[in-house]
């Protein structure tokens, strides 16, 4: 049981937004399963085409979403996004009920989802500094990871059962309701404060008008942003390669048709476990050192995939998921501190768009290295996780110390979890 005393969940505004975002994300996970079921049931349906249209538009929509999140009221932008997606997804079960659902209809819905995906994916973290005080930033970021973990597990599992029993139409209808729940939660949220006052109104206004240029220059100039972005991009390429390796290992382990799902669930379980740990206990070590160490531990954990025992592989994958979730929480807290509030929308949209784009590169890497065996691919994944951490360790640690000194607060204390520091 998580102690909510003094945590972000004791903050009514954050609690409403978090609940709404979690429900909406669970709906997204469920509706994807339903869309796949619809595609498989259509004579001309293609799951591959559906997947491409569901993901590829993020590269375009993400950049527009970042600009919009810094230019307009983020809360109302998220409300509009939720209502628009509710209308779009609502056409699917309606068309199916009337006997007019086509593959083109499914593809258009998937493309709209891809275009709008980054609005909520970057909008929620951009709202966090407005909803909670600085001392609760890390707890709030950990709760975002918890949200994704719960949503992914509940949404996918629930959809699998529902599609098999009552059909995909009901699943998509539930997703429509989840968008409306998020919209209602946002409308009912009153935000009394403003994002961190590290930047003046004129400066913030200039950044809002400046497009991506100021954000890119900030990412190059600020070591915390630059180093973590490069580290995470390479780390994600490694995770993308791992997703290609795991099906092969599942077969070699003799885990059956569901083996791949078991191994992926181990990673997800590790992510959720780490997020819960960060919520429960205060984290006092330096965040920059922690990011470096977690990346190195993750590289070692991946080696367990080569173990002859599937149980050893599962333990290693749980460790990998835990390290990845902790790194994300710590790095996001650092980024919120290092970047002015006026660029948070563009910054998180750009970073998350980049992270969405890197796993396919990992798949390509796996296709090349698997020719030399699974061990070669796993070693390449380890290198992608460990080498950048070693190269940036000194620069990132110094930058974290300087960032803490500039704010006048020791870095570990800034990251203390609500009320426990």
TrEMBL record:
Pfam families: MFS_3. It comes from the Bacteria. SUPFAM superfamilies: MFS general substrate transporter. This is Transmembrane secretion effector. The chain crosses the membrane at residues 17-41, 47-70, 82-101, 107-131, 143-164, 170-191, 229-247, 259-279, 291-307, 313-335, 347-368, 374-393. Keywords: Cell membrane, Membrane, Transmembrane, Transmembrane helix, Transport. GO terms for cellular component: plasma membrane. The lineage of its organism: Bacteria, Bacillati, Actinomycetota, Actinomycetes, Micromonosporales. It is a multi-pass membrane protein. CDD domains: MFS_MefA_like (cd06173). The keyword Hydrolase does not apply. InterPro entries: MFS_trans_sf (IPR036259), TM_effector (IPR010290). It comes from Micromonospora rhizosphaerae. It is found in: Cell membrane.
């Amino acid at each position: 049981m998580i102690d909510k005393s003094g945590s972000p969940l004791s903050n009514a505004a954050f609690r409403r937004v978090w609940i709404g975002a979690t429900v909406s994300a669970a709906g997204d996970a469920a509706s994807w399963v339903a869309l796949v079921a619809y595609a498989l049931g259509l004579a001309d349906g293609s799951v591959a085409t559906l997947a491409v249209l569901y993901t590829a538009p993020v590269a375009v929509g993400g950049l527009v979403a970042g600009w919009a999140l810094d230019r307009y009221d983020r809360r109302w932008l998220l409300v509009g996004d939720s209502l628009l997606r509710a209308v779009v997804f609502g056409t699917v079960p309606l068309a199916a009920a009337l006997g007019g659902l086509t593959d083109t209809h499914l593809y258009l819905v998937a493309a709209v989802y891809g275009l709008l995906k980054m609005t909520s994916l970057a909008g929620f973290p951009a709202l966090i500094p407005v909803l909670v005080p600085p001392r609760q930033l890390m707890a709030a970021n950990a709760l975002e990871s918890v949200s994704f973990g719960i949503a992914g597990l509940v949404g996918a599992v629930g959809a699998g059962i529902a599609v098999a029993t009552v059909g995909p139409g009901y699943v998509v209808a539930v997703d429509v309701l989840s968008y409306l729940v998020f919209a209602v939660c946002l409308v009912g949220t009153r935000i009394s404060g403003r994002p961190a006052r590290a930047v003046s109104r004129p400066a913030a206004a200039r950044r809002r008008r400046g497009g991506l240029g100021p954000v890119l220059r900030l990412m190059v100039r600020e070591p915390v942003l630059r180093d973590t972005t490069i580290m995470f991009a390479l780390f994600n390429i490694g995770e993308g390669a791992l997703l290609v390796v795991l099906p092969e290992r599942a077969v070699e382990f003799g885990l059956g048709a569901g083996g791949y799902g078991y191994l992926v669930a181990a990673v997800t379980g590790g992510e959720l476990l780490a997020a819960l740990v960060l919520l429960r206990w205060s984290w006092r070590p330096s965040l920059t050192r922690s990011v470096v160490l977690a990346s190195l531990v993750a590289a070692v954990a991946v080696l367990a995939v080569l173990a002859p025992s599937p149980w050893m592989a599962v333990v290693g994958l749980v460790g990998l998921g835990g390290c990845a979730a902790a790194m994300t929480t710590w790095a996001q807290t650092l980024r919120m501190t290092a970047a002015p509030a006026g660029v948070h929308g563009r910054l998180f949209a750009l970073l998350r768009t980049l992270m969405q784009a890197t796993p396919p590169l990992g798949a390509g890497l796996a296709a090349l290295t698997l020719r030399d065996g699974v061990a070669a691919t796993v070693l390449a994944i380890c290198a992608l996780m460990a080498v950048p951490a070693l190269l940036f360790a000194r620069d990132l640690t110094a930058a974290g110390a300087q960032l803490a000194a500039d704010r006048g607060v020791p870095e570990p204390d800034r990251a203390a979890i609500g009320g426990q520091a």
